[in-house]
Sequence to fold (109 residues):
Amino acid sequence: MFNFFKSLFKNDAYENLKAKEFLAQYKSTPGAVLLDVRTPMEVAAGKLDGAKAIDFQNPNFAANVSKLDKEKTYFIYCRSGMRSASACRQMHAMGFKNLINLSGGYISI
Fold:
């Protein structure tokens, strides 16, 4: 169980950043993509400016993500950080290399 929690904070697939660092690094990374993986209802309640929404719970998530440029840097967030971490792992398995997860999610901002 310890390894599960350890994997949430440090791994080779993606980087976890807290809100302040996440936003600062996003703003300072040329060509970066802000990706919101929450449901449409969650997104409708509010999102970060400029975020592209692709629902992680949608069965077409992998197909939708496969259309993205794998060379770009992706800053990914959800409500609490769990779905976005899963999205990062899935995207890494698909060949994406530059993935940053918002630790604590949208509610931490």
Helices lie at 2-9, 19-27, 40-44, 61-65, 82-93. The two ends are 28 Å apart (CA to CA). Residues 82-93 form the longest helix (12 residues).
